[in-house]
Amino acid sequence: MSTTVRDNPEQSRYEIHDGETLEGFPERGTTGRKTAFTPTRALTPARGSW
């Protein structure tokens, strides 16, 4: 499988996918032209594998 990052504007986050499986995501907040990211939430069992 290949790892990809996808924008999910409905959830206000980018998502890390392995194939079609959601592996983790950092949430984001946007103010004007600035974007802040929280630490990435890794979903088990993918934690630490990328």
**Uncertain regions spanning at least 5 consecutive residues:** none
- Separation, N- and C-terminal Cα atoms: 12 Å
Provide mean pLDDT, rounded: 78
Major β-sheet profile = 4 strands, antiparallel
Q: What sort of overall outline do the alpha carbons produce when their principal axes are compared?
A: elongated
Could you give the count of β-strands? 6
In oligomeric terms, what are we looking at?
single chain
H and E order: EEEEEE
**How many helices does DSSP assign?**
0
Helix proportion range: under 10%
Structural class: mainly beta
Strand composition percent: over 45%
* Computed Rg: 12 Å
Strand order of the largest sheet: 1-2-3-6
Structural summary, described in words:
By secondary structure, the chain is mostly beta strands. The protein is 0% helix and 54% strand. The chain contains no helices and six strands. Strands 1-2-3-6 form a four-stranded antiparallel β-sheet, with no helix packed on it. Strand 4 and strand 5 form a beta hairpin. The model has no long low-confidence stretch (mean pLDDT 78).
What's the gist of this structure?
The chain has 50 residues and is mostly beta strands. The chain is built from no helices and 6 strands. Strand 4 (28-31) and strand 5 (34-37) form a beta hairpin.
